[in-house]
Amino acid sequence: MSEEKLGILGGSPVNSEPWPETNTIGDEEKKAVLAVLDSGLLSGFRAVPGEDFWGGPQVRELEAEWSAYFGASHSVSFNSLTSGLFAAIGAVRIGPGDEVIVSPYTMAASVTCVVAYGGIPVFADLEPESYCLDPASIEEQITPRTKAIVIVHLFGYPADMDSIMEIATRHHLTVIEDCAQAPAGEYRGRYVGTIGHIGGFSLNRHKTIQAGEGGVMITEDSDLALRMQLIRNHGEVVVESFGLEDVANTFGGNTRMTEMEAAVAREQLKKLDGLNSARIGLAAYLDRRLSEVPGIEPQRLQHVNDKHVYYLYAMHYDENVVGLPRDLFVEAVRAEGVELRQAYVRPIYLEPMFQQKRAFSKGNFPFISEFHNAKGAYDKGICPVTEAAYERELIFGNFARWPLTKGHMDQIINSFQKVIANRNVLLAAKAV
Ligand SMILES: Cc1ncc(COP(=O)(O)O)c(C=O)c1O
Fold first, then answer.
1. pTM of the model
2. Where does the chain hold its CATH 3.90.1150.10 domain(s)?
3. Residue 80 CA: which ligand 1 atom is closest?
């Protein structure tokens, strides 16, 4: 097999069949949505105090079931996790000039939620094994202005929460966990999202469980829960009836989940354990088989009680050992019919908003204003581990997912081995 001509050079690929898509929607979700449609009550919210303020029956059931699953005191649903993160930052009372430590390697909403309230995102670097924030780097970024940390459990891998919470407690910081990619992932036997002060989950269509769109925030703190509920539902007109003295950041929008989405999410939550088990099983098989491929290493868990839930299957790529530049390797593997990808996202601070320090229509607020001067804070080079992952060291795929099988995992390994066995032919062909 490995001596055969590479797909990229016109040979037959390892795999010529498209892999099956993941579709977790079944009869249960269809029945649940039809029942909502039959009821005529497609959304249950009104911006008035009283029962309607908390959402329709499906939304409230979902929140109760979410709390029961995660062992949380409060769940607050939203139309997306982006909205939930914005509400969380608002609830923590972040304001102009406040610093929030964030990850540079994540979906943008885990950072822009800070900017929305005039706060300053301060980027800490990643821990090279997990691609989650490195506690030592977090500590280096703390100043008297630091108010909170947004942790991302990237790809489904749990961040080092004990160290992070120890730092946060010492410096009186609030910790928000972005668990979009790690629903029911565990750190030392505890669900991620339940360790910090607020945890957030996404139900967008790419996630392990989905409702089309949607997000759920969990917390033990009833004040934070109420403030998130106010922000999702025009809090400005009801704050008095809740007796809130500090009304800062309680003005809201309409970021509510619909009843159809909640009905789908309730059914999906029942499937989460099974879908995660399938991911973990495939990842364990891939981990074992990757030992046959020098230069490509799977992510290794730091502790037996940690649970990676493999939203994405990430690997460390060592160009010197593999003998091919990463982009050429990925291109050649893709030509073998395997959906490998490189890098993930550009480090967020390299995006134009940070490079130009331009978020709003006038001036450089919040980055440079009477409240703060973040000059130089977003220069290239500030997070070397992140930049190395982005530029050279990270490859990944949406591999470890139902309904893929060990046969598909074998195709990944076969394609890696075939490309590596033919690397000199490939390099020579590319040189002409
Ligand atoms: C790490 C992370 N945070 C936040 C989000 C935002 O979630 P949503 O699409 O529900 O707004 C995503 C979604 O891709 C994500 O992956």
1. 0.97
2. 7-23+272-344+388-431
3. 10
